[in-house]
Amino acid sequence: MRKDFLWGGATAASQCEGGWQSGGRGMAVVDVIPQGENRLPVMKGVMDYRNLPAGSYYPGRDAIDMYHRYREDIALFAEMGFRCYRFSFSWSRIFPTGEETEPDEEGLRFYEDLIEELLKYGIEPVVTICHFDIPLALVEKYGSWRSRETIGCFLRYCEVIFRRFKDKVRYWITFNEINMIMHLPFMGAGILIGQEENSLQVRYQAAHHELVASAMATRLAHEINPGFQVGCMLAAGSVYPYSCRPEDVWESLKQDRENYFFIDVQARGEYPAYAKKFLEREGLVLETGVEDEKILRENTVDFISLSYYNSRCVRTDGGGEMAGGNVFESAKNPYLTYSQWGWPIDPLGLRITLNDLYDRYQKPLFIVENGLGAVDQVDGDGNINDDYRIEYLEAHIKAMMDAVEEDGVDLLGYTPWGCIDLVSATTGEMSKRYGFIYVDKDDKGQGTLGRTRKKSFEWYKKVIAGNGAVLK
C-alpha cells in the first residue's frame, strides 16, 4: 500500500451529529424520518412526513450527540491512528432554510472547530457536502431537487464552505450515494412523489439537477483552490448473474448500468448512450439548461468514492429466495454467508467491484464506506468482543489490498462505515452497530451516550500502524 494511504473511518452528520435545535441549525430531512413501520414509506417519498402520527420517534434528531462530544470522539479516532476522517456538514446548520444570503456564523464555527481538532492530531478531513441532507425549508418551498432553484442554493452553500476551508480541507465529496435517489428519494434527496405523478420522471429530473449541481460545484471548487480534490460517490457492489443463462447475464449488465449511470456522467462528462435510450423508451423528457451539457462535459470529478457492503445477484426465472443488502434486494447467492440483517457477505466482491470501477473510469478510487452491522453484547466486565466484525473487515481489507497490489487499482484510502456506533440510515436503529467504539444508547433513545472501545478498536489500530502489513 502507498505510504500516504488514507486509513480512517466514516460517519454522517444526519446519523451521528444530533444537536438539531442547537447552534441555530434549521430543520433538515433527517429530522422528519421516523423509526418504525413508517420509516421506509417516508424514505421512499410515498408517505408524507407531515401526516405521521403524534409521538413518532425521530432518532436522527439527537443521534449520538457528536455535536457536543466531537472532541472526545476525535481523540478516540486519533488513538486508533486515523490518517483521515470522512464526515459530512449539515447544510441547514450553515444555511438554516437554504435561502439565506449570509451563512450562520455559529454553524461555520462549529465545523471550523471540528476541523481544527482533526488537524491537531494530523487527521485529514474528508468532507461530504451533502450526505442524505437538505434543509427542510427547501423541500417545502421548492420540492427539493425537483426544482432548479435548489442548484443555486446548493452552490451558495458550496462557495461559503470552499472559501472558509480553502486551506484546511483538500478532499470533498459532492453527494453521498447519489444513485440512492432512485431507491429512497426522500431520504436521499428530499423528494416526495405524489400518487398521480410519474415517479421515474420526477426522480430522473431531480437527479439531473443534482448532476449539474455537482459539476458546477466541482468547477467552483477548482476555481477557489486548484489543489482541491473533488469526488463523486455511489452505493457500489457488482451485480452477478445467478446462472450462465444469457437472460441472467443480460439482466446483471442492465442493473450494473443502472448503478453506474450517475458516475458515468460525473466521471465522463455526458449521459451515456444506454441512458439516453432508456429515457427515450420510458418517454421521459428532462428539462435542461442551455449550458448543462457543456457544464457536465467540462467539470468531471477527480476521484470516484464508493460504499461497498455486499455484491448483488440477479435471476430471471422467477425462482429462488431473495436477500437484502443496502436497500438493494436481490436473488440469494447460495455461495455466500449472510449478516444478521440478511445482507450478503462477499469480500472477493469488493475486489471485483474495485476492478470494475477502475477499468471503467481510470480515475483514483476511494472506499469511503464498508462495514458490518451487527448486535454487540457488553459482557460482565464491560468488554465488547466483536470478533465477527474483525473477521468481516479483515477479509475485505485483504481483498482491497489484492486489488491494489495484484491488480494495479489506484486507491486513495479506506474509511470503514460507522467507525463509532450511530443511527442506522436504513432502519433507524442503534442496535445495528458498525463501530469500533460502542455508544451506550438503545433503539428507544435511552442510554448514557458513554463511549467504550470494542475489541476491534485495538485490532484496527494495529492494521493502520502497519499500513495493512499485519494482515499479510
Automatic annotation (TrEMBL):
Q: Does the keyword Iron-sulfur apply?
A: no
Q: Which Pfam families match?
A: Glyco_hydro_1
Q: Which domain of life is it from?
A: Bacteria
- Keywords on record: Glycosidase, Hydrolase
* InterPro entries per the UniProt record, alphabetical: GH, Glyco_hydro_1, Glyco_hydro_1_AS
Q: Which residues form the signal peptide?
A: none
Q: What is annotated as the active site?
A: 369
Which protein family is named in the record? Belongs to the glycosyl hydrolase 1 family.
Name it.
6-phospho-beta-glucosidase
Look up and give the organism this protein is from. Enterocloster hominis (ex Hitch et al. 2024)
